[in-house]
Amino acid sequence: MDEAELWRAVESKDAAFDGLFVFAVTSTGVYCRPSCPSRRARRDRVQFFRLPEGAERAGFRSCKRCKPDAAPSPDPHVELVRKACRIIESRQPAPGLDELSTELGISQFHLQRVFKRIAGVTPRQYARARRVDEFKERVKRGDSIVGAMYDAGYGSSSRLYESATEELGMTPAELRRGGRGMQINFATAACSLGRILVGATEKGVCAVSLGESDKELESMLKSEYPEAKITRGGKSLDHSVALLLDHLQGEQPHLDLPIDVQATAFQRRVWEELRKIPYGDTRSYGDVAKAIGSPSSVRAVARACATNRVALVIPCHRVIREDKSLGGYKWGLKRKEKLLKNESARAQR
Known about the structure:
Elements: H1 3-11, E1 22-25, E2 30-32, E3 46-49, H2 52-57, E4 61-62, H3 76-90, H4 97-104, H5 108-119, H6 123-140, H7 145-151, H8 157-162, H9 164-168, H10 172-176, E5 183-191, E6 194-200, E7 205-211, H11 214-224, E8 229-232, H12 235-248, H13 265-274, E9 283-284, H14 285-291, H15 298-306, E10 319-320, H16 333-347
Parallel strand pairs: 2-4, 5-8, 9-10
Antiparallel strand pairs: 1-2, 1-3, 5-6, 6-7
Helix pairs in contact: 3-5, 3-6, 6-7, 14-15
């Protein structure tokens, strides 16, 4: 997750992200869980840490209200997976299943089964995702492709390029260039939720965003592809925009637009399941986790929803909490509430 996604979880006080990271406030010297009920500080005063230990090493102390360093998990399997993740994150190259299971003192079969049940992916898939994230961060920071490749744990260029399109969503060179050489066309329009932006490559829709102004939406798109050739307009977009506007009016309940969005294997499983949720209906994060065969991956499902880049096409707004509260929504809870009310009313006609 990038810091924008972490901040959205903090702003919405989303408990689904508790245990995945902590945030610290520089003005108070305190670190908290994402769901902490305390009043939120300004964004420029907030830092993020993967674990409480990291925040404490940086000089922050635990919040007395939400106690982010307390409340150990009642499920020993969760702690086992946390230990496995720490080992994977601290080694280059990441250890294989045999080495990992030996260090943790359990069988490979048991580790594989427990890890997938809790995390929603296998240890190998988790290691690959971490490696990709590390590579992307280093390249975007300005490191050379070769340097970033070895620092991120790729043993050779062939391994990196073999799965570049699937894992990165673009070639390493395109990532290094910030999307330079890529062609993205976009269009904006007024809709019942404010303004909508639709962006697409020749392969499919790569962005559907909701906001208050075209300037805001264009800025979001350009931040994803700072060096891409981004052009307003294009006849191929007319059909997609029209379908989305009709969808918002209830005239096109089922969207079947091709998408071109980078995703992990787990994200794809979640997003495919979201597209099966009937118009006018909802599912809980737990329901989705069960449907994809990973009942303990509720938080991972919440993360997959939070990283969705194509609003409406992948209807993450139809996923709510077990207690029927809305949970989070990348484009604002008021929009999520309005979407669900409108869809429910139209589905009953």
